[in-house]
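Q: Convert this sequence to structure tokens.
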Amino acid sequence: MQNRSVDQLKLDIQPDNDGKYKFDTHRVIYPRIELSGIKGSLREILSLFLVFLSYYLAAKLGLFYTLKPVGIALLWPSNAILLTVILMTQPRNWWKYFLAVIPAELLADLPAGIPLGGIFVFLLGDFLEVTLAATLLNRFVRAKFSFSCLKNTLHFILFAVILGPMAGAAIGGFLPFAAGYDIGYWDAFLRWFLGDGLTHLTVTSFLLIWLSKPSENKWSTQIGEIIEGVIISILLLVSSSLATGLLNPPGLTAPILLYFIFPILLWITIRFGPRGALTALLFLTNITILNFLMGRGPFTGGVASENIVHLQLFLTFLLSPIMILAALMEERKINLQNIKIQKKYFESLFQLSPSAVVILDNEENIMRVNDQFLNLFGYTQEEVAGKKINSLIVPDHLQAEGERATLSVNEGEQINFESIRKRKDGSLVEVDIFGMPLVIDGKKIAIHALYRDISVRKRNEEIIKQELMEKEILLKEVHHRVKNNMQIISSLINMQSTLIKKDEVKQLFLDSKNRVKTMALIHEKLYQTEDFSRIEFGDYIRRLISDLMKSYRVDSDRIKLIISIENISMDINIAVPCGLIINELISNAIKYAFPGDRSGTLQISLVRQNDDNFEMTVTDDGIGLPSDFDVNKTESLGLQLVHALVNQLHGRIDINGRDGLQIKICFKDVSKKISDTVLKKESSD
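A:
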């Protein structure tokens, strides 16, 4: 007796979060079925009840399709119900539906006189069949399942129609002993296998495709196609009735009439796709089996058990190619639609490109241009078709350049450069040119070139360059005038100091003069450089110290000077306060560290510790500081100025007065913070 393949119908009634049909690519072959307004445990109970009820009704129908007394079922629809449910359910929930169908099987089989042992053999074989088929489909179908996909259809036939039923039949072969029927193991195996395979081929596929997402494989609503559907349905009804004996007297068989069904099935397959084809196949299968049970049609002669096998084989070998053909035709139709859409998409990109686009063949002849190309160069489509690109738009004096460019692209290179090209009226236009080979399957089939008019950009660049040059000249002049003015101020202070007799006051004038010269020297350096925001600080300090030594008339043999400063390019916002700090520290060392004829060494170093930190050190081996010296209480204007400048640099100062004097100043590159703040402000604006 043939068993019902427990194929998994996923009646998982949990709706998706967005309220739409969704496909779980991991373990659920088909989307969930929604029961709106029902939530929680009530929804789960209702889903289990629906599975129980549908399985019970399908089992009763399967008993109707079972021949007595041999107990052979031509179809067992309850297997289709179970497989459909399981395919639409997460594996962790399968056991619930297996438990739900057990009482349904008992209620259907016990009144029919099937012993309890036979029922449990049914269930064991069905569960194995359904579990294997669903597991394999979940494993190998990694995208949304669809009978519009040939690969999916072949997977379904292999796993649900062949391998699953074979596994179930291996157990079902013991059914005759358990149920008390007079059938051998191999006969039972063959009929179970064929019956369950045919069940999945017709009923399961029908359920799955009609429970799939409504937008997939939807029927056309045009009046002409509705009329066509009605006509073809009538033709299928008449042809199948004639072929299977419904309209013939009992006992009359006409096998040749079966051939009249083929053109009708092909028509349905081509015109209505998998949904129409699977519906027609289910109808044909049921009408053929019903006529067979009533003793009609071409499969009623001879031994009944053999007739069943012939009927099942006939339907299987008829329906499988039709299902495959439907998937192939629908897949081809979808691919053609996708190609059409992609063609329109790329055509839109081609025409709407802001660049002038041209496609050349391997001989550098123009195959296609977009409207932007025609607008840029002033030609029509007819005037450019088949022309050589170089002879059309490359000026005579740039022909060699154009030939080198096309040769490079022909050799597989990508090119990008700026040049000049010629319009139809002879005027020249500056363009940015990009070219690349079009390669398909490793073979170059064309050349793709883009031209972008950069005339406006070039004019703007020239204007900006000219304005920048004017501003640089103006800025140089500003620094030059500032430097001159500071030198004038320094000279005035120096002249004024000659009239002063008191040494202390004269020294104050001299200190002020040196501070002014320190700042003037910065502007002199900026005037001499191309970068008006930074100076080479090492050269600046050496020049500054040299001027200080001359100003104070220091004997280089008495005070030895050691300068250790890296080649640091420093922002003017740091260079000015740093120069003033060094001016004060060197001046103090010259005036106070070596009184009388005392000799010694004066060292200055400046190093960059990392990208953001500097360390400046001024050291002398002079007399040092008094023991009661407090830097925070000093009345020295110079040291007060040093403290103010260090604070301006967000730094710190350390003073060591033992064995001479060492002043160490650590500070950050505040110019980076200033530039970062400006950039952030500009971006926020």
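The longest strand covers residues 428-440.
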